[in-house]
Amino acid sequence: MTFKTIDQAGDLTGKRAQVRVDFNLPMQDGKVSDDTRLRAALPTIRALSLRGAKVVLLAHFDRPKGKRVESMSLKPVVQPLADLLQQPVAFADDCVGPDAAKVVDGLENGGVALLENLRFHRGEEANDGDFADELAKLGDLYVNDAFSAAHRAHASTEAIAHRLPAYAGLAMERELDALEAALGNPKRPVIGIVGGSKVSTKLDLLKNLVTKLDKLAIGGGMANTFLYAQGHDVGASYCEKDLAETAREIVRLAGQNNCKLFLPLDIVVAEKMQPGAPARVRGLGEVDEHERILDAGPETVARLKRAIDNSHTLIWNGPIGVFEMPPFDKGTVEAAQHAAALAKAGKLIAVAGGGDTVSALHHAGVAADFTFVSTAGGAFLEWMEGKPLPGVKALDV
Ligand code: ADP
Ligand code: MG
User: Fold this and answer.
1) Of 116, 143, 220, 282, whose CB is crowded by the most CB atoms within 10 A?
2) CA of 249 to the centre of ligand 1 (A)
3) 368 and 227 in a common domain
4) Is 334 a member of any domain?
5) Whole-number percent of the chain with pLDDT over 70
């Protein structure tokens, strides 16, 4: 796909740039408790402001379901954002209508305003044309910088993009470039690691990946279902036995698509799923009735590291063990550190995403060394599933 970037937007002096950002951030007692998402939006806001645009920020918070809910106001975001930008941020009590227009009209060139929660209006999530018309009245151009909201066809992510000249913001551009490098048009061989607890939440993802990747390593709880499907005893492990046939189908699909599958060679088991529980390395099928598989074994991890060495690109979603409970973090940490060192040395393009995956990479201390780590959650997973993202598609030129 091709999209326009903000440096192709021409002279922005005095132009109203409506920027869709993701400010759906963690708040505690009415205060922002993690400003990662604010920081992610700064480069685009600054770039537009420096070029003399009037920057109008569109965002949602939580799920007010189409009505005004005071506890879901975006107002608490204003001051932290102003502090980070080191410039004042105006706030409009509504995202459309006369109040919003007044605030936008009052902006100087380079000024920044945040509009109240889009989801206070039913039209936002309904992708309603009339509501999008109202929003578009407040802008001369539209910039989407919220990849994490791009899997939803909402008025501020989809319909508005057809009403104004539309551009990808800097964070969106970076994310799309990274995803293209990992899966769209990767430098081969490309290897995937998919872990996590359940096969059932990642069926579409596995089915798509086996058609795109040269190699796929399956780990974590979901690997148990594959082992069970191949006739191995998994003891008291987490396992979706009803999905055994589906697991076999994925193995077949991988074969048909020349995707080499890596299932565990050995495993780490314990009797209790608890931090510090005594861990034992076992061969496949050597699991006692009361034991659970909680991590990949040393041979499995060594083989995975070699497979990464022999790849140019890695795409990773899902920890390969119960990383929250050491020592069962070992496989995930070792694989993550190995990939990160190669990425840092410029030998591997390493892209990862997913809520727990991001936590695991931070736990391993290597998130910053990966080529790209997506914090987009649902949008990242839908993209890995090969689904078209409406908010991205709407930027296509
Ligand atoms: P993400 O959020 O990155 O998409 P998931 O939510 O799919 O990842 O999976 C993360 C969870 O999978 C973690 O909580 C981890 O403890 C769990 N997990 C990994 N390996 C196992 C295992 N062998 N048994 C049970 N749960 C596991
Ligand atoms: Mg998760």
Assistant:
1) 143
2) 22
3) yes
4) yes
5) 100
Residues 167 and 190 reside in one and the same domain: no
Out of 356, 361, 385, mutate this one to test ligand 1's pocket (max ligand atoms within 8 Å of CB): namely 356
**Residues 53 and 87 placed together within one structural domain of the fold:** yes
Residue 250 within a domain: yes
Q: Residue 313 is part of a domain; what is its CATH number?
A: 3.40.50.1260
Residue 1 placed within a domain: no
Rounded Cα distance, 14 and 150, in Å:
28
Indicate if ligand 1 lies below 6 Å from the C-beta of 373.
Answer: no
* Closest Cα to atom 4 of ligand 1: 354
Alpha helices in the chain (DSSP H): 36-50, 75-85, 97-105, 122-125, 129-136, 170-179, 203-212, 221-229, 244-256, 298-309, 330-344, 355-363, 378-384, 390-393
Whether 169 is covered by a domain: the verdict is yes
| Atom of ligand 1 at shortest range from CA of 323 | 16
Say yes or no: 113 and 219 in one domain. Answer: no
Are residues 320 and 299 part of one domain?
A: yes
Q: What is the pLDDT of residues 73-88, one digit of tens each?
A: 999 999 999 999 999 9
Which ligand is closest in space to the CA of residue 357?
A: 1
Indicate the pLDDT class of residue 285, thresholds 50, 70 and 90. Answer: confident
**What domain range includes position 127?**
6-173
Q: Does position 339 have pLDDT exceeding 90, yes or no? A: yes
What rounded mean pLDDT belongs to the chain? 97
321 close to ligand 1 (CB < 6 Angstrom): yes
Ligand nearest, relative to CA of residue 202: 1
Does the Cβ of 186 fall within 6 Å of ligand 1? no
> 3-class SS at 258?
coil
Indicate if ligand 1 lies below 6 Å from the C-beta of 322. yes
d(CA 315, CA 328): 22
What is the tally of structural domains in the chain?
Answer: 2
* Phi, then psi, of 203 in degrees rounded to 5: -60, -50
pTM: 0.95
pLDDT at 319: 98
Whether residue 153 is found in the same domain as residue 55: yes
